[in-house]
Amino acid sequence: MDNHSKVFPISHVVGFFMSLVLTFGAAWIALQSSLSMKAVMWIIGTLAVVQAGIQLYMFMHMNEGDDKVTNNINILYSAFIAVVIVAGSIWVMTSGHSH
Amino acid sequence: MGIKWDEFFVTGDPLIFASQIGIALTMIGALAALTYFKKWNYLWTEWLTTVDHKKIGIMYILMGVLMFVRGGIDGLMMKGQTAVPENEFLNAQHYNEVFTTHGVIMILFVAMPLLIGLMNFVIPLQIGARDVAFPQLNALSFWLTFSGAMLFNISFIIGGSPDAGWTSYFPLAGKEFSPGIGNNFYAVALQIAGAGTLMTGINFVVTVLKMRTKGMTLMKMPMFTWTSFITSIIIVASFPIFTVALALMTFDRTFGTHFFTISGGGMDMLWANLFWLWGHPEVYIVVLPAFGMLSDIISTFARKTLYGYKSMVISIVMISVLSMLVWVHHFFTMGNSAGVNSFFSITTMAIAIPTGVKVFNWLFTMRKGRIKFTTAMLWSLAFVPNFVIGGVTGVMLAMAAADYQYHNTLFLVAHFHYVLIPGVVFPIFAGLYFWWPKMFGYMLNERIGKWHFWLFVIGFNVTFMPMFFLGLDGAVRRAYTYSAETGFGPLMMISAVGSVILAAGFAALVYNIYWSARHADRNIGNDPWDARTLEWATATPVQHYNFASLPDVSKIDAFWHMKKNNEIQPLTEDEIEEIHLPSNTWIPIYMGVIFGISGFLLVFEWTIAAAIAALGIFAGLAFRSFDYDEGFHVHKDEILETERKWRKGANKGVKNHVS
Q1: How many other CB atoms are there within 10 angstroms of residue B367's CB atom?
Q2: Measured between alpha carbons, how far is B461 from B495 in angstroms, rounded to an integer?
Q3: ipTM, 2 dp
Q4: Tell me: the pLDDT tens digits for B185-207?
Q5: Quick one: which of A47, A66, A91, B293 has the most CB atoms within 10 Å?
Q6: Do A70 and B277 touch (CB under 8 A)?
Q7: Domain boundaries, position B304
Q8: In chain A, what residues touch B328 (CB-CB under 8 Å)?
Q9: Same domain assignment for residues A6 and A38
Q10: Which residues constitute the domain of residue A4?
Q11: What amino acid positions of B are annotated as catalytic residues?
Q12: pTM of the predicted model, to two decimals?
């Protein structure tokens, strides 16, 4: 860890400011903008996904250590499963006359 | 919380009354025998509190075989009822209960425990490890599964069985249409058992990723380890869906919520959607480890390295991804749009591609091999044509337009029995015959094994082949009777006769276990089949620490090369170090009991009592948190003594008991 501390943690600082910007940006769009409800949901949902990516890659050591390949595969697979379950269920349940 | 004590025990049916008496007598007999032979202490210290993956595996297998008897009797009762038209052996309600418990038990308490049992026993040995990654969690997995299974099984004598089919579709399974407590047994017992399975999945993902011996890279793992690894990943991905669905079901039935009801804004179809989001991956959870066992067994008895190892790995990874993308094919007819049905038709047919690759790889493994026709190999050979019938009828069903014709008929029932029996049960039998010597130090009798094989395979085909034609003629599934005018009588009778042959085959297995335990040769060496993977590179039966020194692997089929290079030598004293192993613990079985009691109270909707009992779960968690037991060390003397015994004979050529 010693040689780590000598380098200026630029990615952490960038990540920190990005998180602030994204958080306050989302709050501003939700509270202050006059966009439609649907547009607000899409925008803050997108910002949340970007935020999650920043957390994973800049703070949660996704690309460090011996397990970085495994970690990345894990995250990709979880994202795949989440999309299949949520988007898939919505598609199946709202198409046709099954709902 | 009106407690209806007069409805507590199921009464009024002579069959169930006989079972109640039988169960009471068996329990009294077992307790008396344990006391008389002074085996309580042995049972507690050697089995009930063990964290040894081998013993946990054997307990899983024992449970699976016992549940097979229960599920099999359910199946025979159905066949008895439908053998002739207008039969009055079972009434409609009883028939509903029997097909429900048959399905649940055969999938979740027979196929799963038998496969997880074999995985438990074999995987740590195949990767050259001394145990799974989390031994105590492994024991907890077993006891939760066992607890769930027992809770589900008592339903038919206490409270009444679930009767809405193994899929328990809403709205039928809801309170409005099934007001009794039967379906609570389904929701609660499967929740408990499912938690155990989920833990097994996590445990084996970590075990395979972290516990492999030196030199065993992922692409040098035996195929059974590969398939178990992928299976564990599917478990981790899909079981939480079932957990959520069952929790919502419990809320609907016990607390009056409206997730799946027709009234109050519920979506009854959402249950089917969530059930199959878990249920279809579940099919691959049971079939993939079975494929892995077949790969290792075929490679052993064809005496060749597995053909197309890389394509096998790619196929199982493809299957694991596709398995999450096909669930709607279980309810094509529920009114989805044409777009949805087309998409899921195509993904379903796509699964036939990697599966076909695997079938051809097995055939090419056998090509030009010097095949030995042992019982284990016979099961593997019978698997191929029978499973292909199941697979091809699956592609027929995958076409959504055609499915409107086939769905809900016995054609479908025949199809999934042709997938699950050759695809799961045959390989399990193959695996039992193959690994039995490793587990117990003696082999199952080959002669009785062949009786078992022929009776079972013939019985299976005679039972289920007529059902394809019955289904095409319009016989619906889950119907307790039919009229003589339908003309189903003769084929139904043939099918019933087949089921008796099938049962005789299973009886031959039970007799084989009894006969071999009493009479089989105990002097069989560490490698009776001339096998290829690491589980055979240690003593038979396996010593409790598995390997004195962890093996070093450089190739696929590691043990085959160890034998060629004469690497199994007597160990010298400086090659041995003390081995650190985990101690036994009472917490897993305690948790199983508490979950069982708490679940039982919840089934009867005595929610306050269930909540109080559930405090015991937190007590168990607290005990575990303050458990500072660091395990124990196996001393050098003991290791030297054990190793000397089996290594003496290991180099004098391979003993071959099969000619």
Answers
A1: 11
A2: 9
A3: 0.85
A4: 999 999 999 999 999 999 999 99
A5: B293
A6: no
A7: 5-650
A8: 92
A9: yes
A10: 1-60
A11: 60, 70, 74, 78, 99, 120, 131, 138, 141, 145, 197, 200, 207, 280, 282, 284, 295, 311, 355, 358, 415-417
A12: 0.92
